[in-house]
Amino acid sequence: MSVRELVVLGTASQVPTRHRNHNGYLLRWDAEGLLFDPGEGTQRQMLRAGVAAHDINRICITHFHGDHSLGLAGVIQRINLDRVPHEITAHYPASGRRFFERLRYATAYRETVSLAEGPVAGDGVLATTPAYTLEARRLSHPVESFGYRLTEPDGRRILPGRLAEHGIRGPDVGRLQREGSVRGVTLAEVSEERRGQRFAFVMDTRLCDGVHALAEGCDLLVIESTFLDEDERLAVDHGHLTAGQAARVARDAGVRHLVLTHFSQRYADPGEFERQARAAGYEGELTVAKDLMRIPVPKRAS
Q1: Nearest Cα to 215, choosing from 171, 259, 264?
Q2: What is the Cα–Cα distance from 232 to 225, expressed in whole angstroms?
Q3: Are 56 and 32 in contact (CB under 8 A)?
Q4: What is the pLDDT of residue 81?
Q5: One of 67, 204, 229, 291 is an active-site residue; which one?
Q6: What is the C-alpha radius of gyration for the chain, rounded to an integer number of angstroms?
Q7: CB under 8 Å, gap of 24 or more: what pairs does 1-4 form?
Q8: % of residues, the chain, pLDDT over 90
Q9: In terms of Cα–Cα distance, which of 73, 256, 258, 257 is closest to 245?
Q10: Does the structure show a pLDDT above 90 at 155?
């Protein structure tokens, strides 16, 4: 059975706290897993969350600040220790290649797994598979940073009533989907368009065009909200978003489920992030992320 969910491994900004690990997020997308921004301690958080190295097919690094990448060394070594049987591709800002190489070979170990590299040099598509297209957009942060967006191809939804009208049943339904027509009845006559699901991952950034482009029409948007609105000046100075800014992005983009994360240790009440997001006018499903939380990608709208 296919599973589409976000496994939250860590939610802290800059430094871990007693209750929040450095960043780390695994997106399960059917048979594949995409690991985003493995900060320090990610390997242990994976064990706690029931995530195995075998679950990873891609690693996506937004930028090379430590809370988003220091766990990369341990994750790569665990992938090799466990002899993951499939190729894994790592995407990261091309300008940070030296940091990637240092983390990849931080200590001695035996390489047993093929790890491909897909450096990101600008906006555009990084990979296209039958299940999704992965693209990157440039963000606005003191170091080069990119956000990631995953889009499922559009498809068609079979309408049982129309099948019955045309007398299509049993094995003929499968033939119709594979071949496009059966006994003169076309797939278009018994189905309707089904928009592919969309996911975006937006970390350290000020408001910019890339943020809005990544968020547009998403079913699930994971976005940093390091600061509360009263500290907006700090957010701008340090290249971050506030809870209200993130929520307005989601509101204007028509996001169905908004996940706020990457919280500064200065705030004691996580609930204030939700209150400010609601005050900004976001009315969809909203989650203030906690470590080890599992968040399903919303089911397709009927």
Answers
A1: 259
A2: 11
A3: no
A4: 98
A5: 67
A6: 21
A7: 2/30, 2/31, 3/28, 3/30, 4/28, 4/29, 4/30, 4/197, 4/296, 4/297
A8: 85
A9: 258
A10: no
- Using DSSP bridges, classify how beta strands 88-93 and 58-60 pair: parallel, antiparallel or unpaired: parallel
pLDDT tens sequence across 71-126: 999 999 999 999 999 999 999 999 999 999 999 999 999 999 999 999 999 999 99
* Separation CA 196–CA 265 (nearest Å): 37
- Tell me the mean pLDDT in the region 232-242: 98
Task: Report how far residue 241's alpha carbon sits from residue 282's, in angstroms, rounded to the nearest whole number.
Answer: 15
What is the identity of the amino acid at 153? P
Please report, as a single letter, which amino acid is at residue 259.
V
- Average pLDDT (219-247) is 98
Cα separation of 299 and 86, whole Å? Answer: 29
Alpha-carbon distance of 19 to 244, in angstroms, equals 23
Which amino acid is present at 150? L
- Cβ–Cβ under 8 Å, residues 19 and 291: yes
Q: Could you give the 3-state DSSP secondary structure of residue 257?
A: strand
Residue reference for tokens 């990261």: 92
Cα(78)–Cα(43) distance, rounded to whole angstroms?
Answer: 8
> pLDDT by residue (tens digit) across 252-262?
999 999 999 99
Pairing of strands 181-182, 185-186: antiparallel
Within 10 angstroms of residue 30's Cβ, the number of other Cβ atoms is 13
How many Å apart are CA 211 and CA 52, to the nearest integer?
Answer: 31
Measured distance CA(174)–CA(76) in Å, rounded: 41
What does the alpha-carbon distance between residue 195 and residue 156 come to, in Å, rounded to a whole number?
Answer: 8
- Annotated catalytic residue 67: yes
Q: Of the candidates 157, 155, 156, 153, which has an alpha carbon nearest to the alpha carbon of residue 130?
A: 153
Half-sphere exposure of 220 (CA within 13 A, CB side): 23
If pLDDT is split at 50, 70 and 90, which confidence band does 302 have?
low
pTM greater than 0.90: yes
The DSSP element (H or E) to which 77 belongs, if any, is helix 72-81
**What mean pLDDT is predicted for residues 22-36?**
98
